[in-house]
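quick one, 207 residues, struct below
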Amino acid sequence: MGKCDGRCTLLVICALQLVAALQRQVFDFLGYQWAPILANFLHIMAVILGMFGTVQFRFRYLIFYAVWLVLWVGWNSFIICFYLEVGNLSQDRDFLMTFNTSLHRSWWMEHGPGCLVTPVLDSRMAPDDHHVITVSGCLLDYQYIEVLSSAIQILLALFGFVYACYVSKVFQDDEDSFDFIGGFDSYGYQPPQKSSHLQLQPLYTAG
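---
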């Protein structure tokens, strides 16, 4: 087609999105963050569909991918607001990331760079099957790690949305130009036509 620039760039963006989503999925599994796990799974499926549409010149798949990226930006914006506790959101009260099924926090809370975890023994604050800890010495708090991860997802999604719209427009223009010149009819193929009448020839017999 001579227009590999947009397609190749979109494929690179999709590949980066897959790597970032899989990395995020691993750490969300370790932290029992069920809501992000579900969202990451849907995102991975949508990105794979976008890559398939880019390679196979499927216009509708790219449109679906672009629409999903809008929702993905909204979800990651909510995560940023949640960890920064914007408005009435509170990490101590709202356990939205685990669907309110457990008290688990982000995996980075205890395993962040430089974090020192100290268990608190004989604490009456701990519910059943849980323990109370104190975390200190972190070079970067887990909230900001989660915010940085979501910001990267938003940045990739914005680039992906722009290129998905561009490539889908190129696909649509190529289809319209192909239909305009008549598709396969431009080769001048004409089906065989049946004769509308029979030509009678005189028959001579020897007398």
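The longest helix spans residues 142-180.
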